[in-house]
Amino acid sequence: MSGTSNLSNLQLILKDNKIDILIINRSDEFLNEYISPYAERLKFVTNFSGSAGKAIILQNEAYLYVDGRYTFQAKEQINENEIKSKHLNLFWEDLKNYMSIAKRKIAVDPKLHSIKEIQKIHKNLTNTSSKIEFLESNIIDLIWKNKPNIKYSNIFDHPVKYAGEDRVIKLINFKKYLKTKNIDYYLTSGLDNIAWLLNIRGDDILYTPLVYAYLLISQNEKPSLYINKNKINDQLKIEIEKNIDIYSINNIKNIFSNIKKNNIVGLDFSTTSYYFLTLLQNKNINYVDTDNFCVLSKAVKNKIEQTGALKANLRDGVSLTRFIYWLKNLIDINCTDEIIASNHLESLRVNNELFHSLSFDTISAFGKNAALPHYRVNKVSNSKFEKDGIYLVDSGAQYYDGTTDITRTIILGTPSEEQKDRFTRVLKGHIALSNHVFKKGTKGTEIDYLARQSLNEIGCDYDHGTGHGIGSFLSVHEAPQRIAKKSMFDSIELIPGMLLSNEPGYYKLNEYGIRIENLILVKEKSNDQLYFENISWCPIDRDLIKKDLLKLEEINWLNNYHFNVYHKLKNFVNDKEKEWLKNVTEPL
Predict the structure, then answer these.
(1) d(Cα 161, Cα 164) in Å, to the nearest integer?
(2) How many whole angstroms separate alpha carbon 451 and alpha carbon 433?
(3) Number of H helices, E strands in the chain
(4) Which of 54, 80, 255, 518 is deepest in the core (most CB within 10 A)?
(5) Neighbours of 481 (CB within 10 A)
(6) Is the peptide bond before 110 cis (omega within 30 degrees of 0)?
Protein backbone atom coordinates (compact mmCIF):
# COMPACT_ATOMS: atom_id res chain seq x y z
CA MET A 1 0.00 0.00 0.00
CA SER A 2 1.47 3.31 -1.01
CA GLY A 3 1.15 6.45 1.10
CA THR A 4 2.91 7.77 4.14
CA SER A 5 0.24 7.50 6.83
CA ASN A 6 -2.91 5.65 7.80
CA LEU A 7 -4.97 8.68 6.79
CA SER A 8 -3.37 9.06 3.35
CA ASN A 9 -3.77 5.32 2.75
CA LEU A 10 -7.45 5.62 3.65
CA GLN A 11 -7.88 8.54 1.25
CA LEU A 12 -6.43 6.40 -1.56
CA ILE A 13 -9.09 3.79 -0.80
CA LEU A 14 -11.78 6.49 -0.97
CA LYS A 15 -10.51 7.57 -4.41
CA ASP A 16 -10.38 3.98 -5.68
CA ASN A 17 -13.97 3.40 -4.53
CA LYS A 18 -15.20 6.81 -5.74
CA ILE A 19 -16.24 7.73 -2.18
CA ASP A 20 -16.31 11.48 -1.60
CA ILE A 21 -16.93 11.54 2.15
CA LEU A 22 -16.35 8.97 4.91
CA ILE A 23 -17.84 9.64 8.34
CA ILE A 24 -16.04 8.04 11.30
CA ASN A 25 -17.54 7.78 14.77
CA ARG A 26 -15.41 6.84 17.75
CA SER A 27 -17.60 3.91 18.62
CA ASP A 28 -18.10 0.17 18.30
CA GLU A 29 -21.07 -1.85 17.04
CA PHE A 30 -22.66 -1.57 20.51
CA LEU A 31 -22.36 2.26 20.36
CA ASN A 32 -20.31 2.34 23.55
CA GLU A 33 -18.51 5.38 24.92
CA TYR A 34 -15.72 3.14 26.17
CA ILE A 35 -14.40 0.83 23.47
CA SER A 36 -11.80 -1.92 23.10
CA PRO A 37 -8.64 -1.71 20.95
CA TYR A 38 -10.24 -3.56 17.99
CA ALA A 39 -12.76 -0.69 17.59
CA GLU A 40 -10.33 2.25 17.86
CA ARG A 41 -10.69 3.17 14.17
CA LEU A 42 -10.75 6.93 14.79
CA LYS A 43 -7.46 6.68 16.68
CA PHE A 44 -5.95 4.49 13.95
CA VAL A 45 -6.75 7.07 11.27
CA THR A 46 -6.15 10.34 13.17
CA ASN A 47 -3.93 9.39 16.15
CA PHE A 48 -6.46 11.09 18.49
CA SER A 49 -6.98 8.91 21.59
CA GLY A 50 -9.78 10.75 23.44
CA SER A 51 -13.02 9.06 24.46
CA ALA A 52 -15.32 11.11 22.19
CA GLY A 53 -14.94 12.37 18.65
CA LYS A 54 -15.96 12.21 15.01
CA ALA A 55 -14.17 12.70 11.72
CA ILE A 56 -15.12 13.73 8.21
CA ILE A 57 -12.62 12.29 5.74
CA LEU A 58 -12.66 13.61 2.16
CA GLN A 59 -10.36 12.50 -0.65
CA ASN A 60 -7.99 15.44 -0.16
CA GLU A 61 -9.04 16.92 3.20
CA ALA A 62 -9.82 15.62 6.69
CA TYR A 63 -11.40 17.08 9.83
CA LEU A 64 -11.52 15.81 13.40
CA TYR A 65 -14.34 17.04 15.66
CA VAL A 66 -13.93 16.98 19.46
CA ASP A 67 -15.60 18.63 22.46
CA GLY A 68 -14.04 21.10 24.86
CA ARG A 69 -12.45 18.40 27.00
CA TYR A 70 -10.17 17.43 24.12
CA THR A 71 -9.49 20.64 22.17
CA PHE A 72 -5.83 20.89 23.14
CA GLN A 73 -5.18 17.15 23.26
CA ALA A 74 -6.44 16.77 19.68
CA LYS A 75 -4.10 19.47 18.40
CA GLU A 76 -1.16 17.80 20.10
CA GLN A 77 -1.93 14.31 18.77
CA ILE A 78 -2.95 14.87 15.15
CA ASN A 79 -0.76 15.78 12.19
CA GLU A 80 -2.15 19.21 11.32
CA ASN A 81 -0.62 19.03 7.84
CA GLU A 82 -3.06 16.21 7.10
CA ILE A 83 -6.07 16.85 9.30
CA LYS A 84 -7.57 19.85 11.06
CA SER A 85 -9.35 19.73 14.43
CA LYS A 86 -12.62 21.56 15.06
CA HIS A 87 -15.17 21.82 17.87
CA LEU A 88 -17.81 19.10 17.84
CA ASN A 89 -20.53 21.77 17.66
CA LEU A 90 -19.51 22.42 14.03
CA PHE A 91 -19.82 18.82 12.83
CA TRP A 92 -23.36 18.85 11.46
CA GLU A 93 -23.08 22.26 9.81
CA ASP A 94 -19.85 21.24 8.07
CA LEU A 95 -21.24 17.88 6.99
CA LYS A 96 -24.31 19.55 5.51
CA ASN A 97 -22.08 21.90 3.50
CA TYR A 98 -19.94 19.06 2.15
CA MET A 99 -23.01 17.01 1.23
CA SER A 100 -24.63 19.94 -0.59
CA ILE A 101 -22.06 19.66 -3.38
CA ALA A 102 -23.61 17.78 -6.31
CA LYS A 103 -23.56 13.99 -6.47
CA ARG A 104 -21.41 13.33 -3.44
CA LYS A 105 -21.15 9.70 -2.29
CA ILE A 106 -21.14 9.55 1.53
CA ALA A 107 -19.96 6.29 3.08
CA VAL A 108 -20.92 5.14 6.57
CA ASP A 109 -20.65 1.89 8.47
CA PRO A 110 -24.29 1.28 9.55
CA LYS A 111 -23.13 -0.67 12.62
CA LEU A 112 -21.29 2.34 14.06
CA HIS A 113 -24.02 4.98 13.81
CA SER A 114 -27.32 5.29 15.61
CA ILE A 115 -30.63 5.28 13.75
CA LYS A 116 -31.18 8.89 14.81
CA GLU A 117 -27.81 9.93 13.41
CA ILE A 118 -28.41 8.29 10.02
CA GLN A 119 -31.89 9.83 9.88
CA LYS A 120 -30.30 13.24 10.44
CA ILE A 121 -27.86 12.61 7.59
CA HIS A 122 -30.79 11.59 5.34
CA LYS A 123 -32.63 14.78 6.30
CA ASN A 124 -29.61 16.90 5.38
CA LEU A 125 -29.48 15.14 2.00
CA THR A 126 -32.98 16.38 1.11
CA ASN A 127 -32.90 18.54 -2.02
CA THR A 128 -29.35 17.42 -2.85
CA SER A 129 -28.13 14.88 -5.40
CA SER A 130 -25.74 13.29 -2.89
CA LYS A 131 -26.37 9.78 -1.58
CA ILE A 132 -25.42 7.55 1.36
CA GLU A 133 -23.59 4.30 0.72
CA PHE A 134 -23.81 1.80 3.57
CA LEU A 135 -20.60 -0.21 3.84
CA GLU A 136 -20.95 -3.97 4.24
CA SER A 137 -17.53 -4.04 5.87
CA ASN A 138 -15.59 -1.12 7.30
CA ILE A 139 -13.04 0.14 4.77
CA ILE A 140 -10.67 1.28 7.52
CA ASP A 141 -10.16 -2.39 8.36
CA LEU A 142 -8.75 -2.93 4.82
CA ILE A 143 -5.67 -0.86 5.66
CA TRP A 144 -5.41 -1.75 9.37
CA LYS A 145 -2.67 -4.33 9.43
CA ASN A 146 -2.37 -6.32 12.67
CA LYS A 147 -5.78 -5.03 13.78
CA PRO A 148 -6.57 -6.44 17.26
CA ASN A 149 -9.30 -9.07 17.46
CA ILE A 150 -12.40 -8.66 19.56
CA LYS A 151 -11.83 -10.37 22.93
CA TYR A 152 -14.53 -11.94 25.08
CA SER A 153 -14.12 -12.35 28.84
CA ASN A 154 -15.84 -14.67 31.27
CA ILE A 155 -19.43 -13.71 32.12
CA PHE A 156 -20.26 -13.66 35.83
CA ASP A 157 -23.28 -13.11 38.04
CA HIS A 158 -23.94 -9.84 39.87
CA PRO A 159 -25.88 -11.18 42.85
CA VAL A 160 -28.98 -9.59 44.35
CA LYS A 161 -27.06 -8.70 47.55
CA TYR A 162 -25.30 -6.04 45.41
CA ALA A 163 -27.85 -5.50 42.61
CA GLY A 164 -30.81 -5.13 44.97
CA GLU A 165 -33.35 -6.72 42.62
CA ASP A 166 -33.59 -10.11 40.94
CA ARG A 167 -33.32 -10.31 37.13
CA VAL A 168 -36.68 -12.09 36.99
CA ILE A 169 -38.42 -9.13 38.66
CA LYS A 170 -36.68 -6.67 36.34
CA LEU A 171 -37.81 -8.66 33.29
CA ILE A 172 -41.40 -8.81 34.54
CA ASN A 173 -41.36 -5.02 34.95
CA PHE A 174 -39.91 -4.61 31.45
CA LYS A 175 -42.70 -6.77 29.98
CA LYS A 176 -45.32 -4.70 31.82
CA TYR A 177 -43.74 -1.62 30.24
CA LEU A 178 -44.06 -3.18 26.77
CA LYS A 179 -47.73 -3.89 27.43
CA THR A 180 -48.42 -0.25 28.30
CA LYS A 181 -46.67 0.80 25.06
CA ASN A 182 -48.50 -1.83 22.93
CA ILE A 183 -45.16 -3.21 21.75
CA ASP A 184 -44.62 -6.92 21.08
CA TYR A 185 -40.81 -6.93 21.20
CA TYR A 186 -38.05 -4.59 22.29
CA LEU A 187 -34.44 -4.61 21.10
CA THR A 188 -32.48 -3.68 24.21
CA SER A 189 -29.34 -1.84 23.15
CA GLY A 190 -26.62 -0.52 25.43
CA LEU A 191 -24.35 -3.02 27.15
CA ASP A 192 -24.84 -1.33 30.51
CA ASN A 193 -28.62 -1.68 30.13
CA ILE A 194 -28.32 -5.42 29.42
CA ALA A 195 -25.83 -5.92 32.27
CA TRP A 196 -28.12 -4.09 34.71
CA LEU A 197 -31.31 -5.82 33.57
CA LEU A 198 -29.91 -9.37 33.69
CA ASN A 199 -27.52 -8.87 36.64
CA ILE A 200 -24.57 -10.10 34.60
CA ARG A 201 -21.12 -8.59 34.31
CA GLY A 202 -17.89 -9.25 32.40
CA ASP A 203 -14.62 -7.59 31.40
CA ASP A 204 -15.07 -7.26 27.65
CA ILE A 205 -14.27 -3.55 27.99
CA LEU A 206 -11.38 -2.31 30.14
CA TYR A 207 -12.50 -0.67 33.42
CA THR A 208 -16.22 -1.08 32.66
CA PRO A 209 -17.61 -4.50 33.72
CA LEU A 210 -19.68 -5.22 30.62
CA VAL A 211 -20.49 -8.22 28.42
CA TYR A 212 -20.72 -7.96 24.63
CA ALA A 213 -24.38 -8.84 24.15
CA TYR A 214 -27.66 -8.12 22.40
CA LEU A 215 -31.07 -8.74 23.94
CA LEU A 216 -34.53 -9.02 22.38
CA ILE A 217 -37.37 -8.94 24.91
CA SER A 218 -40.80 -10.30 24.05
CA GLN A 219 -44.05 -9.37 25.78
CA ASN A 220 -45.26 -12.99 25.62
CA GLU A 221 -42.21 -15.21 25.07
CA LYS A 222 -38.81 -15.76 26.67
CA PRO A 223 -36.25 -13.05 25.87
CA SER A 224 -33.42 -13.89 23.45
CA LEU A 225 -29.91 -13.15 24.67
CA TYR A 226 -27.02 -13.15 22.16
CA ILE A 227 -23.61 -13.62 23.79
CA ASN A 228 -20.41 -15.62 23.41
CA LYS A 229 -21.79 -18.91 24.72
CA ASN A 230 -18.29 -20.25 25.49
CA LYS A 231 -17.79 -17.55 28.14
CA ILE A 232 -20.66 -18.36 30.48
CA ASN A 233 -20.20 -21.07 33.10
CA ASP A 234 -22.66 -23.95 33.36
CA GLN A 235 -24.17 -22.88 36.67
CA LEU A 236 -24.97 -19.32 35.50
CA LYS A 237 -26.13 -20.63 32.12
CA ILE A 238 -28.64 -22.99 33.78
CA GLU A 239 -29.86 -20.16 36.02
CA ILE A 240 -30.36 -17.73 33.14
CA GLU A 241 -31.94 -20.28 30.81
CA LYS A 242 -34.83 -20.73 33.24
CA ASN A 243 -36.16 -17.41 31.93
CA ILE A 244 -34.07 -16.49 28.85
CA ASP A 245 -33.05 -18.25 25.63
CA ILE A 246 -29.32 -17.95 24.90
CA TYR A 247 -27.91 -17.75 21.34
CA SER A 248 -24.49 -17.20 19.82
CA ILE A 249 -23.63 -13.53 19.23
CA ASN A 250 -22.27 -14.59 15.81
CA ASN A 251 -25.87 -15.27 14.72
CA ILE A 252 -27.07 -11.75 15.51
CA LYS A 253 -28.33 -11.25 11.95
CA ASN A 254 -31.12 -13.75 12.79
CA ILE A 255 -32.35 -11.84 15.87
CA PHE A 256 -35.67 -10.92 14.19
CA SER A 257 -36.16 -14.20 12.28
CA ASN A 258 -39.14 -15.43 14.35
CA ILE A 259 -41.05 -12.14 14.41
CA LYS A 260 -44.27 -11.91 12.42
CA LYS A 261 -44.89 -8.97 10.12
CA ASN A 262 -47.86 -7.70 12.10
CA ASN A 263 -45.78 -7.53 15.30
CA ILE A 264 -44.23 -4.25 16.47
CA VAL A 265 -40.59 -4.00 17.55
CA GLY A 266 -39.57 -1.10 19.79
CA LEU A 267 -36.07 0.37 19.80
CA ASP A 268 -34.42 3.56 20.97
CA PHE A 269 -33.41 5.40 17.80
CA SER A 270 -30.80 7.48 19.63
CA THR A 271 -28.83 4.53 21.05
CA THR A 272 -29.47 1.63 18.64
CA SER A 273 -27.24 0.87 15.67
CA TYR A 274 -28.76 1.60 12.24
CA TYR A 275 -27.79 -1.95 11.25
CA PHE A 276 -30.81 -3.27 13.18
CA LEU A 277 -33.18 -0.94 11.36
CA THR A 278 -31.95 -2.37 8.05
CA LEU A 279 -32.65 -5.90 9.36
CA LEU A 280 -36.20 -4.88 10.29
CA GLN A 281 -36.80 -3.11 6.98
CA ASN A 282 -35.50 -6.05 4.96
CA LYS A 283 -38.09 -8.27 6.67
CA ASN A 284 -40.88 -5.65 6.45
CA ILE A 285 -41.33 -5.78 10.24
CA ASN A 286 -43.10 -2.88 11.95
CA TYR A 287 -40.97 -0.81 14.33
CA VAL A 288 -41.34 2.22 16.57
CA ASP A 289 -38.95 4.60 18.36
CA THR A 290 -39.50 4.03 22.11
CA ASP A 291 -37.52 4.88 25.22
CA ASN A 292 -35.59 1.99 26.72
CA PHE A 293 -37.19 0.95 30.03
CA CYS A 294 -33.74 0.20 31.49
CA VAL A 295 -32.29 3.69 31.13
CA LEU A 296 -34.31 5.48 33.79
CA SER A 297 -34.80 2.37 35.95
CA LYS A 298 -31.03 1.89 36.08
CA ALA A 299 -30.37 5.57 36.80
CA VAL A 300 -32.60 5.60 39.89
CA LYS A 301 -30.64 3.47 42.33
CA ASN A 302 -32.54 1.16 44.66
CA LYS A 303 -31.82 1.13 48.41
CA ILE A 304 -29.22 -1.65 48.19
CA GLU A 305 -27.42 0.10 45.31
CA GLN A 306 -27.44 3.37 47.28
CA THR A 307 -26.02 1.65 50.36
CA GLY A 308 -23.39 -0.02 48.18
CA ALA A 309 -22.41 3.34 46.70
CA LEU A 310 -21.97 4.82 50.18
CA LYS A 311 -19.74 1.93 51.29
CA ALA A 312 -17.69 1.81 48.07
CA ASN A 313 -17.02 5.55 48.16
CA LEU A 314 -15.98 5.38 51.81
CA ARG A 315 -13.41 2.64 51.07
CA ASP A 316 -12.23 4.58 48.05
CA GLY A 317 -11.93 7.81 50.03
CA VAL A 318 -9.57 6.08 52.45
CA SER A 319 -7.28 5.11 49.55
CA LEU A 320 -7.22 8.60 48.07
CA THR A 321 -6.65 10.20 51.48
CA ARG A 322 -3.68 7.91 52.15
CA PHE A 323 -2.42 8.80 48.66
CA ILE A 324 -2.56 12.55 49.41
CA TYR A 325 -0.74 11.95 52.71
CA TRP A 326 1.98 10.17 50.70
CA LEU A 327 2.16 13.09 48.23
CA LYS A 328 2.36 15.75 50.93
CA ASN A 329 4.69 13.97 53.35
CA LEU A 330 6.62 11.02 51.96
CA ILE A 331 7.60 11.50 48.33
CA ASP A 332 11.00 12.59 47.10
CA ILE A 333 9.69 15.21 44.68
CA ASN A 334 12.76 14.90 42.47
CA CYS A 335 12.16 11.19 41.95
CA THR A 336 8.38 11.20 41.47
CA ASP A 337 6.40 11.55 38.26
CA GLU A 338 2.85 11.10 36.99
CA ILE A 339 3.20 7.38 36.31
CA ILE A 340 4.80 6.63 39.68
CA ALA A 341 1.99 8.54 41.42
CA SER A 342 -0.75 6.80 39.40
CA ASN A 343 0.72 3.37 40.13
CA HIS A 344 0.99 4.14 43.83
CA LEU A 345 -2.66 5.17 44.03
CA GLU A 346 -3.69 1.94 42.28
CA SER A 347 -1.61 -0.06 44.77
CA LEU A 348 -3.59 1.55 47.62
CA ARG A 349 -6.90 0.56 46.00
CA VAL A 350 -6.37 -3.02 44.84
CA ASN A 351 -6.57 -4.58 48.30
CA ASN A 352 -9.82 -2.82 49.20
CA GLU A 353 -12.78 -5.05 49.99
CA LEU A 354 -14.88 -5.90 46.90
CA PHE A 355 -12.37 -4.24 44.52
CA HIS A 356 -12.72 -5.39 40.90
CA SER A 357 -10.75 -2.89 38.78
CA LEU A 358 -10.20 0.79 38.21
CA SER A 359 -13.24 2.54 36.74
CA PHE A 360 -11.21 4.43 34.11
CA ASP A 361 -7.63 5.23 33.22
CA THR A 362 -6.41 7.46 36.07
CA ILE A 363 -5.87 11.10 35.12
CA SER A 364 -2.54 11.78 36.83
CA ALA A 365 -1.56 15.26 35.67
CA PHE A 366 1.17 17.60 36.87
CA GLY A 367 1.61 21.25 35.87
CA LYS A 368 0.60 22.06 32.31
CA ASN A 369 -0.76 18.53 31.77
CA ALA A 370 -3.44 19.29 34.37
CA ALA A 371 -4.77 21.98 31.99
CA LEU A 372 -5.99 19.14 29.71
CA PRO A 373 -9.28 18.02 31.31
CA HIS A 374 -9.04 14.42 30.05
CA TYR A 375 -5.26 14.03 29.97
CA ARG A 376 -3.93 10.47 29.95
CA VAL A 377 -0.31 9.97 30.94
CA ASN A 378 1.96 7.84 28.76
CA LYS A 379 5.72 7.28 28.62
CA VAL A 380 6.21 10.22 26.27
CA SER A 381 4.05 12.77 28.12
CA ASN A 382 5.02 11.60 31.63
CA SER A 383 6.07 14.68 33.64
CA LYS A 384 8.31 14.76 36.69
CA PHE A 385 7.02 16.55 39.75
CA GLU A 386 8.52 19.90 40.71
CA LYS A 387 8.25 22.00 43.84
CA ASP A 388 5.42 24.56 43.97
CA GLY A 389 3.52 22.84 41.16
CA ILE A 390 -0.12 21.76 40.96
CA TYR A 391 -0.99 18.07 40.64
CA LEU A 392 -4.48 16.94 39.59
CA VAL A 393 -5.65 13.38 40.12
CA ASP A 394 -9.01 12.17 38.78
CA SER A 395 -9.55 8.50 39.48
CA GLY A 396 -12.02 5.83 40.49
CA ALA A 397 -12.64 2.15 40.99
CA GLN A 398 -15.15 -0.58 40.25
CA TYR A 399 -16.31 -2.38 43.38
CA TYR A 400 -18.93 -5.13 43.33
CA ASP A 401 -21.19 -2.84 45.36
CA GLY A 402 -20.54 0.43 43.52
CA THR A 403 -18.56 2.58 41.11
CA THR A 404 -16.42 5.52 42.27
CA ASP A 405 -15.03 8.68 40.67
CA ILE A 406 -13.27 11.48 42.57
CA THR A 407 -10.90 14.34 41.74
CA ARG A 408 -8.52 16.28 43.95
CA THR A 409 -6.15 19.11 43.08
CA ILE A 410 -3.00 19.22 45.24
CA ILE A 411 -0.30 21.87 45.57
CA LEU A 412 3.17 20.40 46.11
CA GLY A 413 4.67 23.39 47.90
CA THR A 414 3.43 26.98 47.76
CA PRO A 415 0.75 28.15 45.29
CA SER A 416 0.61 31.52 43.55
CA GLU A 417 -2.11 34.01 44.47
CA GLU A 418 -3.77 33.41 41.10
CA GLN A 419 -3.88 29.66 41.71
CA LYS A 420 -5.44 30.19 45.13
CA ASP A 421 -8.01 32.55 43.63
CA ARG A 422 -9.01 30.11 40.86
CA PHE A 423 -9.05 27.12 43.20
CA THR A 424 -11.28 28.94 45.67
CA ARG A 425 -13.67 29.96 42.90
CA VAL A 426 -13.90 26.35 41.73
CA LEU A 427 -14.52 25.34 45.35
CA LYS A 428 -17.27 27.97 45.66
CA GLY A 429 -18.96 26.48 42.60
CA HIS A 430 -18.62 22.99 44.03
CA ILE A 431 -20.16 24.11 47.33
CA ALA A 432 -22.97 26.08 45.62
CA LEU A 433 -24.12 22.96 43.80
CA SER A 434 -23.60 20.68 46.79
CA ASN A 435 -25.65 22.99 49.03
CA HIS A 436 -28.47 23.57 46.58
CA VAL A 437 -32.05 22.67 47.50
CA PHE A 438 -34.33 22.49 44.47
CA LYS A 439 -37.88 21.68 43.43
CA LYS A 440 -38.92 18.32 42.06
CA GLY A 441 -38.92 18.43 38.27
CA THR A 442 -35.68 20.44 38.13
CA LYS A 443 -33.32 19.45 35.31
CA GLY A 444 -29.55 19.31 35.66
CA THR A 445 -29.21 21.99 32.98
CA GLU A 446 -31.22 24.39 35.16
CA ILE A 447 -28.73 24.36 38.05
CA ASP A 448 -25.41 24.10 36.18
CA TYR A 449 -24.93 27.90 36.39
CA LEU A 450 -24.39 27.61 40.16
CA ALA A 451 -21.07 25.82 39.66
CA ARG A 452 -19.78 28.46 37.21
CA GLN A 453 -21.00 31.63 38.92
CA SER A 454 -17.84 32.58 40.83
CA LEU A 455 -15.60 31.87 37.82
CA ASN A 456 -17.94 33.78 35.51
CA GLU A 457 -17.61 36.86 37.75
CA ILE A 458 -14.01 37.23 36.55
CA GLY A 459 -14.67 36.13 32.96
CA CYS A 460 -13.59 32.51 33.42
CA ASP A 461 -15.36 29.22 32.67
CA TYR A 462 -14.70 25.56 31.76
CA ASP A 463 -15.67 23.78 28.56
CA HIS A 464 -17.14 20.58 29.97
CA GLY A 465 -20.23 19.50 31.88
CA THR A 466 -20.35 19.88 35.65
CA GLY A 467 -21.80 16.48 36.44
CA HIS A 468 -22.40 13.10 34.80
CA GLY A 469 -24.37 10.10 35.99
CA ILE A 470 -22.60 7.21 37.76
CA GLY A 471 -23.52 3.53 37.40
CA SER A 472 -23.76 0.85 40.05
CA PHE A 473 -20.80 -1.46 39.32
CA LEU A 474 -21.31 -0.25 35.76
CA SER A 475 -20.20 2.67 33.59
CA VAL A 476 -18.56 5.63 35.31
CA HIS A 477 -20.45 7.80 32.80
CA GLU A 478 -24.12 6.91 32.96
CA ALA A 479 -27.01 8.45 31.02
CA PRO A 480 -29.45 10.14 31.19
CA GLN A 481 -28.80 12.22 34.35
CA ARG A 482 -26.28 15.05 34.03
CA ILE A 483 -25.52 18.62 35.07
CA ALA A 484 -24.36 20.79 32.19
CA LYS A 485 -25.07 23.92 30.17
CA LYS A 486 -28.24 23.70 28.10
CA SER A 487 -26.14 24.28 24.97
CA MET A 488 -23.98 21.22 25.74
CA PHE A 489 -26.47 18.44 26.40
CA ASP A 490 -30.09 17.54 26.70
CA SER A 491 -31.09 16.79 30.25
CA ILE A 492 -33.86 15.19 32.25
CA GLU A 493 -35.30 15.98 35.65
CA LEU A 494 -33.30 14.89 38.68
CA ILE A 495 -35.00 12.09 40.61
CA PRO A 496 -34.27 10.78 44.13
CA GLY A 497 -31.82 7.89 43.88
CA MET A 498 -29.84 9.30 40.95
CA LEU A 499 -26.09 9.43 41.44
CA LEU A 500 -24.02 12.17 39.79
CA SER A 501 -20.62 13.82 39.91
CA ASN A 502 -20.09 17.43 41.00
CA GLU A 503 -16.90 18.57 39.27
CA PRO A 504 -16.39 22.21 38.28
CA GLY A 505 -12.92 23.13 37.07
CA TYR A 506 -10.57 25.78 35.74
CA TYR A 507 -7.81 25.26 33.17
CA LYS A 508 -5.02 27.67 32.23
CA LEU A 509 -3.45 26.38 29.03
CA ASN A 510 0.19 25.30 29.31
CA GLU A 511 0.29 26.18 33.03
CA TYR A 512 -2.07 24.32 35.37
CA GLY A 513 -5.53 22.86 35.85
CA ILE A 514 -7.94 22.66 38.80
CA ARG A 515 -10.90 20.38 39.40
CA ILE A 516 -12.74 19.31 42.57
CA GLU A 517 -15.04 16.32 42.25
CA ASN A 518 -17.29 14.49 44.70
CA LEU A 519 -20.17 12.17 43.96
CA ILE A 520 -23.63 13.34 45.04
CA LEU A 521 -26.85 11.39 45.56
CA VAL A 522 -30.22 13.03 44.85
CA LYS A 523 -32.38 12.80 48.00
CA GLU A 524 -35.87 13.90 48.99
CA LYS A 525 -36.06 16.74 51.50
CA SER A 526 -39.84 17.25 51.52
CA ASN A 527 -42.83 16.57 49.31
CA ASP A 528 -41.70 19.03 46.67
CA GLN A 529 -38.00 19.61 47.42
CA LEU A 530 -34.80 17.69 46.72
CA TYR A 531 -31.18 18.06 47.80
CA PHE A 532 -27.78 16.46 47.19
CA GLU A 533 -26.04 14.18 49.68
CA ASN A 534 -22.25 14.09 49.36
CA ILE A 535 -20.94 10.51 49.35
CA SER A 536 -17.23 11.12 48.57
CA TRP A 537 -14.89 11.60 51.51
CA CYS A 538 -11.37 12.98 51.13
CA PRO A 539 -9.70 16.24 52.27
CA ILE A 540 -9.85 19.29 50.02
CA ASP A 541 -6.42 20.97 49.92
CA ARG A 542 -6.61 23.92 52.33
CA ASP A 543 -3.21 25.15 51.12
CA LEU A 544 -4.98 26.29 47.93
CA ILE A 545 -7.86 28.10 49.62
CA LYS A 546 -8.15 31.89 49.79
CA LYS A 547 -10.33 32.21 52.88
CA ASP A 548 -11.41 35.82 52.34
CA LEU A 549 -13.15 34.80 49.10
CA LEU A 550 -15.45 32.45 50.99
CA LYS A 551 -18.75 33.46 52.55
CA LEU A 552 -19.63 32.28 56.05
CA GLU A 553 -22.01 29.59 54.74
CA GLU A 554 -19.24 28.29 52.43
CA ILE A 555 -16.76 28.14 55.31
CA ASN A 556 -19.37 26.30 57.37
CA TRP A 557 -19.91 23.81 54.54
CA LEU A 558 -16.17 23.16 54.24
CA ASN A 559 -15.69 22.79 58.00
CA ASN A 560 -18.64 20.42 58.24
CA TYR A 561 -17.38 18.41 55.26
CA HIS A 562 -13.90 18.10 56.77
CA PHE A 563 -15.36 17.16 60.16
CA ASN A 564 -17.13 14.26 58.44
CA VAL A 565 -14.02 13.31 56.44
CA TYR A 566 -12.01 12.97 59.64
CA HIS A 567 -14.59 11.06 61.64
CA LYS A 568 -15.50 8.71 58.78
CA LEU A 569 -11.90 7.88 57.83
CA LYS A 570 -9.86 8.11 61.06
CA ASN A 571 -10.27 4.43 62.00
CA PHE A 572 -9.01 3.21 58.59
CA VAL A 573 -5.62 4.96 58.52
CA ASN A 574 -2.42 4.49 60.55
CA ASP A 575 -1.39 6.79 63.41
CA LYS A 576 0.80 9.13 61.34
CA GLU A 577 -1.86 9.42 58.65
CA LYS A 578 -4.49 10.02 61.33
CA GLU A 579 -2.49 12.85 62.92
CA TRP A 580 -1.99 14.48 59.50
CA LEU A 581 -5.68 13.97 58.63
CA LYS A 582 -6.72 15.72 61.84
CA ASN A 583 -4.53 18.72 60.97
CA VAL A 584 -5.73 19.09 57.36
CA THR A 585 -9.39 18.84 58.36
CA GLU A 586 -9.23 21.43 61.15
CA PRO A 587 -11.86 24.17 60.87
CA LEU A 588 -10.87 26.96 58.49
Answers:
(1) 6
(2) 6
(3) 18, 28
(4) 518
(5) 25
(6) no
What is d(CA 348, CA 345) in angstroms, rounded to the nearest whole number? 5
Among 190, 130, 132, 198, residue whose Cα is nearest residue 159: 198
C-alpha distance from residue 269 to each of 186, 272, 359 (Å): 12, 6, 28
CA nearest to 457, candidates 502, 425, 419: 425
Phi, psi values for residue 59, rounded to 5°: -65, -30
| Pairing mode, strands 406-412 and 467-469 | unpaired
Residue 52, burial from CB neighbour count under 10 angstroms (0-12, 13-18, 19+): middle
Q: Identify whether the C-beta of residue 160 lies closer than 8 Å to the C-beta of residue 199.
A: yes
Tens-digit pLDDT string for the chain (588 aa) = 344 799 999 999 999 999 999 999 999 999 999 999 999 999 999 999 999 999 999 999 999 999 988 988 899 899 999 999 999 999 999 999 999 988 999 999 999 999 999 999 999 998 899 999 999 999 999 999 999 999 999 999 999 999 999 999 999 999 999 999 999 999 999 999 999 999 999 999 999 999 999 999 999 999 999 999 999 999 999 999 999 999 999 999 999 999 998 999 999 999 999 999 999 999 999 999 999 999 999 999 999 999 999 999 999 999 999 999 999 999 999 999 999 999 999 999 999 999 999 999 999 999 999 999 989 999 999 999 999 999 999 999 999 999 999 999 999 999 999 999 999 999 999 999 999 999 999 999 999 999 999 999 999 999 999 999 999 999 999 999 999 998 766 779 999 999 999 999 999 999 999 999 999 999 999 889 999 999 999 999 999 999 999 999 999 999 999 999 999 999 999 999 999 999 999 999
* Closest C-alpha among 570, 561, 521 to residue 540: 561
DSSP string, 344-357: HHHHHHTTSTTEEE
The one-character DSSP state at 443 is B
Beta carbons of 174 and 292 less than 8 angstroms apart: no
Strand order across the 499-502 sheet: 437-439, 529-534, 518-524, 499-502, 467-469, 478-483
Show the CA angle centred on residue 442, arms to residues 440 and 444, nearest 5°. Answer: 135
Residues in the chain: 588
Asked whether 399 and 315 are in contact (CB, 8 A), the reply is: yes
Distances (CA, A) of 358 to 138, 218, 354, 374: 31, 35, 12, 16
Q: How far is CA 291 from CA 125, 266, 296, in A?
A: 27, 8, 9
Look up residue 541 and give its amino acid: D
Burial category of 442 from C-beta neighbours within 10 Å (exposed 0-12, middle 13-18, buried 19 and up): middle
Whole-number Å distance between alpha carbons of 439 and 529: 5
Closest among 247, 236, 408, 411 to 321, alpha carbons compared? 408
Task: Give the CA-trace dihedral at 470, 479, 530, 441, to 10 degrees.
Answer: 180
- The one-letter amino acid code at 198 reads L
